Amino acid sequence: MKELDIAEVARLSGIPASALRYYEEKGLIASVGRRGLRRLFDPDVLEHLSLISLGQAAGFSLEELAAMFGSDGRPRIDRGALAAKADALDRTIRHLAALRDGLRHAAACPEADHFACPTFRRLMKAAAGRRKQKGGR
Amino acid sequence: MKELDIAEVARLSGIPASALRYYEEKGLIASVGRRGLRRLFDPDVLEHLSLISLGQAAGFSLEELAAMFGSDGRPRIDRGALAAKADALDRTIRHLAALRDGLRHAAACPEADHFACPTFRRLMKAAAGRRKQKGGR
DNA sequence: GGTTGACCTCAAGTTCACTTGAACTTGTAG
DNA sequence: CTACAAGTTCAAGTGAACTTGAGGTCAACC
């Protein structure tokens, strides 16, 4: 008996049971069956859930994630679309890295007014230019 | 006359005027004055707005961003907190990089079932373990 | 100096991602 | 066999981040 109870899944994944039911309803995950009324989950669902959390952190909506990975967690859409998502993500990452460096500099720089600091300005300039591309939030 | 009309700011930043008013109300940006009823913005607001968009993409809430940078766009909170934000962001970035690699691999890998592919599994394992740290969404 | 259209305010509505509550069912322990 | 803790459904509520609509104002052009 390897199947997991919803409470087990919640505990192991850190995601509340209510959210797990919501995900199932939205087609992001699937239970393998029921014991009475109670859902049973395959342990694989845990891996799948970390993929979902990850995708959310990347700025993808649950709907997008459902399109990208089915309720089975396997990449689903065509390779071109996956590659495009990867590229969008890559751009996001570069911008975030610049923001990180900017914050780190702001934390270290003795300059009072960071917007006067050329290093900070340069980093922020590098970080700019997001918004309005459908794949990357 | 260098001040920008809200429509100009909207056009240049790609952010709708309604959102700009909302940001002002929330203390994320400031207008330099009014011409009659109409807000006038300093061009600097554009830089500030890209910082906001960036912060959002990084998973920070508007409230957090307001705390991090005032309505003037200058880093505001103490250096320790900024450094902590930078560290949280850095962790996020690493996870996203793993997701990007996973997607890229999924797009390229000839394997039909990606969850059977060791490369994909390894990448997803590396990407896991987000959720429940207050600074990173 | 009147019209006009872009801006204003304020309240209410929308979407997303969940959470909460009420009422109900059921496997397991005693 | 009864009790009950832990699950279930379904509807409604929540908070964040905006958007939309109604009704009002006013700077600028003709």
TrEMBL record, chains A, B:
CDD domains: HTH_MerR-like_sg6. Residues 3-71 form the HTH merR-type domain. Gene3D superfamilies: 1.10.1660.10. Keywords: DNA-binding. It comes from the Bacteria. The keyword DNA-binding applies. SMART domains: HTH_MERR. The keyword DNA-binding applies. This is Transcriptional regulator, MerR family. It comes from Caenispirillum salinarum AK4. The lineage of its organism: Bacteria, Pseudomonadati, Pseudomonadota, Alphaproteobacteria, Rhodospirillales.
